[in-house]
Amino acid sequence: MPKTAETVLEINLNHLEHNYRYLRGKLKPETKFLGVVKAFAYGSDSVKIAQKLEELGVDYFAVAYVNEGVRLRDAGIKTPILVLHPQAVNFEELIERCLEPSLYSPKILKEFLGVAKELKQKDYPVHIKFNTGLNRLGFWENDIDYIKERLEGRDEIKVTSIFSHLAASEDLNEKEFTLKQISNFRKNAQEFDEKINHTPFKHLLNTSGIINYPEAQFDMVRSGIGLYGFGNDTEVDSELKPVATLKTIISQIHKIEPGETVGYNRAFTSKGYQITATLPLGHADGIGRQYGNGNTYVNVNGQKAPIIGNVCMDMIMIDITNVDCEEGDEVIVFGENPNAEKFASTSKTISYELLTSISQRVKRVFLES
Ligand SMILES: *Cc1c(COP(=O)(O)O)cnc(C)c1O
User: Fold this and answer.
1) Does ligand 1 lie within 6 Å of residue 84's CB atom?
2) Helices (H) and strands (E) in the chain — how many of each?
3) Which residue out of 20, 38, 52, 129 is catalytically annotated?
4) Whole-prediction pTM value?
5) Annotation: CATH topology of 13-229
6) What spacing in Å lies between the alpha carbon of 269 and ligand 1's midpoint?
7) Is 1 a residue whose pLDDT tops 70?
8) Is residue 193 within 8 Å of residue 147, measured between CB atoms?
9) Whose CA is closest to 94, among 102, 156, 53?
10) Contact in structure between 320 and 275 (CB atoms under 8 Å)
11) pLDDT single digits (tens) 14-25
12) Per-domain residue ranges for the chain?
């Protein structure tokens, strides 16, 4: 792998392909695959990731908000895009850019019907979201009659799919609850099909759902974190390959005397003759203050170096007293070792948060062989 000369987030598209094929391998050949590329494709680069997934034959994309879908359309992405959490203020633009809304409440359904009518749409594809226990977004099962009434005698929209989202697919202690969610969804789906005069396709599973409940794959699955190399399970993680590696270099090395302090508020005090290195990244790049003060280590030439003192906006300092390195050497913040899940766990968070926090200031570089 090429050594870096500055802070970069390296995106390995071969690893993306590996993860996609691994997850697909868990499914029936006819099951459709939706790639979740919200939040800059989990902090990587939504356009590059979507282009690669489109090339691999993914069936659908999902983003959270309309502007994320617009970005993909601007880049020439042709695959259908589900917008999971749209707001009415963006419905005109959503329709102009052929994005497909999740309709999750009576209010949002009414608002979308209004805009679809104004723009003289016919059979515009929409996706109805049911709440089966996450209690976040979605219609309740007793809204089905309301939806039916709203749709009767009009043709502006067509329900392409119905879906729901699991609350704890990664947690096998919650298996009973998850099985109940699956059976609730099955029941909603059946009732919906009986009351609407066509059969929308169905989807429920996220990455951990694919791993733990493949019997509930219905017609499509929606995977995000798995594509990027994590499966909320160390065994699954060992099968997947991390797509993103955050790399930086050593800007400067300091030799400090006993009792000297390092960084803002003098948060680190040297216990002896110590050696520190300063790295060009900080909380403005997505490595928050919670990773400082010895909580977390980075990888310098294969050796562990703890982050010391307070994380600054554009810099962090590490202890390299026992590490063989020099100015200009590459530092792996996270990637294969430590991986993002492990790095994140040092501050009691998860790979999802760490990955999506890497700010747009960090240059993205792409690897593909
Ligand atoms: C983000 C999201 C997903 C993807 O979940 P992963 O755990 O990353 O696979 C799937 N479905 C919905 C509704 C989501 O919001």
Assistant:
1) yes
2) 12, 19
3) 38
4) 0.97
5) TIM Barrel (3.20.20)
6) 43
7) no
8) no
9) 102
10) yes
11) 999 999 999 999
12) 13-229, 244-367
User: How many Å is the maximal CA-CA distance in the chain?
Assistant: 81
The 10s digit of each residue's pLDDT in 130-142 is 999 999 999 999 9
Beta strands in the chain (DSSP E): 8-12, 32-36, 60-63, 81-83, 100-103, 124-129, 157-163, 201-203, 220-223, 244-249, 252-256, 261-262, 268-269, 274-279, 297-300, 303-308, 316-319, 330-334, 363-367
Q: Are strands 297-300 and 303-308 parallel, antiparallel or unpaired?
A: antiparallel
Please state, as a whole number, how many other Cβ atoms lie within 10 Å of the Cβ of residue 72: 24
- Ligand 1 mutation pick, 46, 49, 84, 205, max ligand atoms within 8 A of CB: 84
- Amino acid at the residue 5: A
Assess whether 213 carries a catalytic annotation: no
Q: Which residues contact 30 (CB under 8 A, 6 or more apart)?
A: none
244-367 topology per CATH:
Lyase, Ornithine Decarboxylase; Chain A, domain 1 (2.40.37)
- Per-residue pLDDT at 196: 87
Closest CA to 309 of 340, 278, 330, 338: 278
CA 130 to chain centre: 21
CB–CB of 306/291 below 8 Å? no
Q: For the segment 253-311, what is each residue's pLDDT rounded down to a tens digit?
A: 999 999 999 999 999 999 999 999 999 999 999 999 999 999 999 999 999 999 999 99
